[in-house]
Known about the structure:
Blueprint: H1 16-33, H2 60-69, H3 71-79, H4 84-105, H5 116-134, H6 136-152, H7 157-169, H8 201-225, H9 234-256, H10 268-284, H11 289-309, H12 316-320, H13 329-363
Helix pairs in contact: 1-3, 1-4, 1-13, 2-5, 3-4, 3-5, 4-5, 7-13, 8-10, 8-11, 11-13
Transmembrane segments: 16-36, 84-105, 117-139, 160-182, 202-225, 237-256, 262-283, 290-312, 342-359
Protein name: VanZ like protein
Pfam family, one: VanZ
Amino acid sequence: MTPPILPSLPPAPHRVPHWFALSYLGALVVVSLYPFTEWEFNGQPWLDFLLYPLPYYRTAFDQGVNVLAYVPYGVALARMFRPAWLGVLAALGLGALTSLVIEIIQLYLPMRVASNLDVLCNAAGALAGGLLATLPWTVRLGRAMQRLRRRWLLADNSADYALMLVALWFLTQINPANPLFGVVVMPEGLPQPFESPIADPALFLFLLEAGGAMLNLTATLLFIASFLARRRDYAPVLGGFFLLAWLFKVAVAAAMLKPVAYFAWINPHVLAGLALGGVLTWLLCHTQRLVQSICALLLLGLAQLAAAQWPLVAADDDQRGLFRWAYHLTNINALSEFANRLWPWAALACVLLSISRQLRRERW
């Protein structure tokens, strides 16, 4: 009998809902309290705002965002508890408590306003997420997704964490003014002076911008490929992911950017980097899985190094003229910056876990 290519160990249990809830909580805190400056207590008792009349100025858009923002959080919280009714109560209670604590902290920020309506909308969103996670058709959908997961991904809990990170990766692209798969942002304002380590400053910027896109694309695709169970699935999965990322960027650009800035997220430098990244990914996908994991690890680190070498700074004012609703630019930038800083390190940890499991299988 021919031994399997990847002898499997008993799959370890995962805690994807716990880690997702923790990551999402971080995103909520960052968006709600960004930029974490000018702290000053106004003397208002902490809970008085709960008894105020509902805000006179409110829009359906803002209320809808406040509800929808807590739905994924409620889903994750509900999945952390058994039985189902306890999950729903936990989603409502912990979701409302999270919102209440954030609103109280906003009393210390002059740029923020504590709102009882926000607490109500957030709690409603968390409750909706909790109910959504426990509905019978949602449970059946979850079982179907588990069957697809067993078919497409490795029988290892590191693949479950990788799947969660792939979903969270789209938060890194939520700002439509930032380049697709880019790790650097070109300012829209006046030219900024900087010292180039090579004789041609324009070439230096091109190498960083195109090289960063190449490294980021290749690292992300190799990260996904290293968790796929079958090599023949590489082309449809990686191609489908890139297409989905492209469509996501197109959608957020159409929703948020002015028509004149619709393609602010793409330029010839980024296209050159993506083309090179596609070729490099194709070459590395022909290597062994362990080699792919190690390359993904190295490329993730190199992408962050390229971003750290970028000498130009893009301020909010540079991008404000690109957006239809400049009021929400601060929150969008906060969420994008949080995701871009957190995701590579979480992916590095996930890849290291996968590499350790692969080395353990080889010893077996």
